[in-house]
Amino acid sequence: MSESEDHIGGVESRESRPCCPSAALPARLTVVVEDTPFSEDKTFLVRSCDYFRALYRSGMRECHQQEIHLKCLHARGFFIALAVLRGEAPGLDADDIVEAIECAAFLQVAPLTKHLVNIVDSDNCLLMLHTAATFGLLDLYHAAALFIRNMYSDLEAEVRRTLAPDLISFVESLTPSAFVAVGAHVTCSESGSVHAASRTVCSLDESGNSWKTLTDLPLEASTSMAGVAVLDNKLYIVGGVHGAHMDVVDASFCYDVSMDGWTKLAGPLQRRCNLSLVGQDGCLYAIGGEYERAVMSSVEILELKSGRWRFAAHLPRPAAGAACTKTMGRIFVCLWRPMETTEIYEYVPPRDEWRFVTSLIRRQSYGHCMVAHRDDLYVMRNGPSDDFLRCVMDCYNLGTGQWSALPGHFANSRGSLFTAVIRGDSVFTLNRSSTLEYVVGGKTWKPRRQMKGFPRSGSVWTFLLQIPICQNEKFTNKS
Q1: 298 φ, ψ to 5°?
Q2: What is the pLDDT of residues 350-386, one digit of tens each?
Q3: What backbone phi and psi angles, to 5 degrees, belong to 63?
Q4: Which residues of the chain does CATH 3.30.710.10 include?
Q5: Tens of pLDDT along 438-466?
Q6: Rounded-to-integer distance, Cα 364 and Cα 356, Å
Q7: Looking at domain 3-170, what is its CATH homologous superfamily?
Q8: What CATH class has 177-477?
Q9: Of 16, 17, 15, 44, nearest to 28 (Cα)?
Q10: Is there a contact between 295 and 288 (Cβ–Cβ < 8 Å)?
């Protein structure tokens, strides 16, 4: 193999050996940053970081040194990078963020960039955007800009006071995420007439206070007892039931809003309905569900790049229609023990395991929904039997490990609050009569505004999509 092929960017894969013999390299490497030494396993650094991977393929003198000095970096940033590479999720203050972005950009530490993207919030998004632009960390730059765009009405004054004109222009050029809903409908008949009028995906025009049709469901697709999720601005529908005999749909469907078209995908290896679907890091997770009236604990992962399903670690116990959410790059599921115990588990992809997080005992009925904001998980359920049409909420903080009850009750008639979606610091819920927006502040949800309800009966799936301007122009007003 030629020397050029052995360098980064050549034909050799990332997993190939460095050009200098591994036997000649030290097992541990001392990395000195700002006069602070870090002693690390060399193989760990090469496997985890593009900078060290390229260095040990280069054949340069540094390949044989036991100590390397990194200039133009801060020790704190390198310390944070090492923590993230070990699987930790450290909280970062403003100084930490700047130094972490500098390190992620210089050393090309993809997991650190991913961690920074996962912790963008309304307190740090402006700093994230400015610093990512300065160091050329594009993934974080786009993530922070979209977050700001989605909260622009709240952040505009601060944006104009603190950001450069070119950054403001970029933020304003983005399309904000729209609140989108689809009813839980079965497949159409061959003629396409049965339920066809209601088998539409609709977007809320917030400025005009109206619902508009985005697309029709494919004839074969069913959202009844299906798994529905959005990943990378694409809508996925997996499983579900159709027909008079409630047969399980054995295919999956993807709607690409940028192309305004549907694609049919392979269904899970195990047919399932009443499943939970979560999208994360290029994969769809089909969690639990039912088949032939048997509740399942099996979990499958669809790797979208390969288009192949594979089984993952089973749930701790069978579950159908389990409440799931994701936050800060982590996936959580609620498992209920009728009728008083709530247990939350986290799926840990590197270990392919479900990790117990916490449990809560409340004298209430079944839970229906879980959403996340920053490091808080909000669990919603019906009220006590004497006030069943009231929604009560409990909040679990991942950082402190503490539960707290939200004050007050929320009406849940016809599904309100059981289809909640988080956008920035806002929570959107809906039913037939109204769409309600709340602002998350501390441990409270404060009502912000009321808009038109979703004009469909029955259960509803809700999510966010960035809809291109050309698609908005094709919308037709929903009656």
Answers
A1: -70, 150
A2: 999 999 999 988 776 566 789 999 999 999 877 666 5
A3: -60, -30
A4: 3-170
A5: 999 877 899 999 999 998 877 889 999 99
A6: 22
A7: Potassium Channel Kv1.1; Chain A (3.30.710.10)
A8: mainly beta
A9: 44
A10: yes
